[in-house]
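Morning F.,

Quick status update on the modeling queue. The single chain you submitted on Monday has been processed. Sequence for confirmation:
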Amino acid sequence: MKTTESPVRAARVRLGMSRAAFGAALERSYGAVAAVESGYSPALPPTWEPGLTKLGISYDELAAAYGAWRGASASSIAG
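Structure tokens below.
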């Protein structure tokens, strides 16, 4: 069980965007957004950087937060 909300989901919600709208802004699919929000991607996809920048989100900061969140989530599942 994940202990905290995905930082990607948190960023999307802060912007007031649906997964579909967020995906469109990133030029990615709803499914891609859902997969990353759920932690199925080992890292934040680098292809998201231009779209995140346009939305005013630092790719590097979000990627670091995502990595930390995913690592903590894996630890809680394994533990």
